[in-house]
TrEMBL record:
InterPro entries: 2Fe-2S-bd (IPR002888), 2Fe-2S-bd_dom_sf (IPR036884), 2Fe-2S_ferredoxin-like_sf (IPR036010), 2Fe-2S_ferredoxin-type (IPR001041), 2Fe2S_fd_BS (IPR006058), Beta-grasp_dom_sf (IPR012675), Diverse_Oxidoreductases (IPR051452). This is (2Fe-2S)-binding protein. Keywords: 2Fe-2S, Iron, Iron-sulfur, Metal-binding, Oxidoreductase. PANTHER family: OXIDOREDUCTASE WITH IRON-SULFUR SUBUNIT (PTHR44379). SUPFAM superfamilies: 2Fe-2S ferredoxin-like, CO dehydrogenase ISP C-domain like.
Amino acid sequence: MRVPTDPQTGPQTDSQTGEYLHDVRLRVNGVVHDLRVPARRLLSDALRHDLGLTGTHVGCEHGVCGACTVLVDGRPARACLMLAVASVGAEITTVEGLTRPDGSLGPVQQAFRECHGLQCGFCTPGFLTTVHAGLEENPDPTHEEAREMIGGNLCRCTGYQNIVRAVERAAVLRRETADGDRA
């Protein structure tokens, strides 16, 4: 990370806030993006406002609700608590990055659709990324492990039963996909 400096005017600053701007290179969903951001720009804001990846939602802004969850090097992280400048060098995956290469729904997304694991949808991106990472770690969770997997994310609409069913269904879909890949 470096502060861009113009030979005539010195360090570059944001015209509205006066904050120094930093050049950062973020790798998001396999694509490298060069940005110029203030040091205190949250990763969630960089994703939504600078990169236009609006699937990452911001709910509580305190890291409690999980709506902003993205994967950082494959592990769930709250994007509302991370600074964009601290994300340099990491592989960031947003909900947009969970689709298959052909653009079709990935197994976790498909399971949420099939099991009606969403209602208003605001919390859904955080659940999808959380479950994706959880199934990477535990590809065949018990019912109780599926419930624990989503324990850090809040939903005000669903009552969680269909979300737990979606976790269990996603595990099945992932196994079926893996079996199909081996055939």
